[in-house]
Design a protein that fits this description.
Elements: E1 5-11, H1 21-29, E2 32-35, H2 37-43, E3 52-55, H3 61-68, E4 74-79, H4 87-94, E5 99-103, H5 108-116, E6 124-127, H6 134-141, E7 146-150, H7 157-166, E8 172-178, E9 187-192, H8 193-198, E10 205-211, H9 240-250, E11 257-261, H10 267-275, E12 280-285, H11 289-300, E13 307-310, E14 326-329, H12 336-344, E15 352-357, H13 360-372, E16 376-383, E17 391-397
Parallel strand pairs: 1-4, 1-5, 2-3, 2-4, 6-7, 11-12, 11-14, 12-13, 14-15
Antiparallel strand pairs: 7-10, 8-9, 8-10, 15-17, 16-17
Helix pairs in contact: 12-13
Length: 403
């Protein structure tokens, strides 16, 4: 079977598209075309008589099944540069052996920067089109001074601005482009984040976020007293020095998914997210008060994106969350063995579990639990802070499955 062949042609929102002669000839001699509803509306006057159109709609499986029934080249119209969060990337993922020929246009963020006469070689790009907030949150936490954002109908300029303000990232101006390339509808606006939360927008749109003053550095080793505490009990927190040593034992720089079981104030999750913004962080707490504590503290320290579960960890549907390669057990309510056993079923090979033990009983339970789970316990360390009882940081690693 011969490989499939695609010709991808980039468009802006102009209803009177100009195509260079080579592209005009390809369209004129083509038979099989594809694209979204908006793309067909833009190019319909250019299509030859008898053209067959395969609409691109979600889910994409039927689209690629339709492609598979044809051996002739398929001319696909796509937005901007199809290699920039675009359909060419989708084809490469689904059909790695396909032949692709590209005729790109400027992508929408380039076009917006051009309209603003703003350099963009220092711009960080994030797509929220059909995607989670994760990479956008990471850009904020890492203090990116210029962020270009591709939006969708859920991640709108208003919801983006509201999220930034909620987590303390208000030192940005927002530059908005709507219907870029459309001679009748194109609009460029400069808004404050507060103004953006109240404004209405037409789709398609995108935006540039530019810091209008120096961004503060990320906190490191947040003072214990800076957190909101459970019922005002300042001792109910993993102390800052212990917290930082604990994070070092988890080796989070090499991890993708971190679970904090028994998060209480959220201090470990928040410090982990601040220092390792690439992480997916999932935090579990049985006490209902934990929800407000995490919400208050994560907003106080600018850490969006921490997913929380309030309730008994042993009853949680763990399949909803990314499997961890690092776990901190901050509280166990006397059910440490059961928690370790449950973690043993989801922890990735070579993953790490860390527990801070104050009482000898906790240490004994940890050692018995990790042994029963088939984990390898590593040498721990003991720390003492001020007048507090010494804490032993215990660590174990799950077995690596040989290929």
């Amino acid at each position: 079977m011969s490989e499939q062949s695609f010709i991808l042609i980039g468009l802006d929102d102009n209803r009177q598209q100009y195509f260079p002669p080579q592209v005009e000839e390809l369209i004129r001699n083509g038979h099989l075309f594809s694209g979204g509803v908006r793309h067909r509306e833009i190019v319909k006057e250019h299509l030859p008589e008898g053209a067959v159109w395969i609409p691109i709609t979600v889910p994409l499986d039927p689209v690629f099944r339709a492609y598979a029934t044809h051996r002739e080249p398929i001319i696909v119209f796509a937005s901007g540069d199809p290699l920039f969060f675009g359909f060419a990337v989708t084809i490469q993922k689904r059909l790695p052996d396909a032949s692709i020929c590209l005729y790109p246009a400027f992508n929408s963020l380039q076009t917006l920067a051009h309209r603003l006469v703003m350099r963009y070689d220092d711009m960080r790009t994030v797509s929220l089109t059909g995607r989670h907030w994760h990479e956008f949150d990471r850009a904020l936490i890492e203090r990116s001074p210029k962020i270009g954002v591709l939006t969708d109908r859920e991640h709108t300029p208003a919801t983006i601005a509201a999220r930034m303000l909620a987590y303390g990232y208000g030192r940005y101006s927002l530059y908005l482009g709507e219907h870029l390339g459309n001679r009748e509808k194109e609009r460029i606006r400069h808004l404050t984040l507060q103004e953006a939360t109240q404004a209405t927008f037409e789709h398609p749109n995108n935006l540039l976020l530019v810091a209008n003053s120096p961004l503060p550095p990320r906190p490191f080793g947040i003072p214990d007293e800076a957190f909101a505490h459970l019922d005002g009990r300042s001792r109910m927190i993993t102390k800052a020095p212990i917290r930082l040593v604990t994070l070092s034992q988890l080796n989070l720089g090499a991890c993708n998914s971190f679970w904090d079981v028994g998060f209480c104030t959220g201090s470990v999750s928040i410090e982990a997210k601040l220092q390792f913004p690439h992480l997916s962080v999932t935090a579990f707490e049985i006490r209902p008060e934990g929800e407000k504590l995490m919400n208050d503290n994560s907003r106080r320290f600018g850490t969006p994106g921490i997913e929380t579960y309030i309730g008994d960890f042993l009853a949680a549907d763990l399949s909803r969350y990314p499997r961890p390669d690092a776990v901190f057990i901050g509280g166990h309510g006397g059910k440490l063995n059961e928690i370790i056993l449950r973690l043993s079923k989801v922890l990735l090979p070579g993953g790490v579990i860390v527990l801070n033990a104050v009482q000898p009983e906790s240490k004994a339970l940890f050692e018995a639990g990790v042994s029963a789970a088939g984990f390898r316990q590593l040498p721990g360390m003991q720390l003492a802070i001020d007048t507090y009882n010494p804490i032993e940081i215990l660590k174990a690693v799950s077995p690596i499955i040989e290929p």
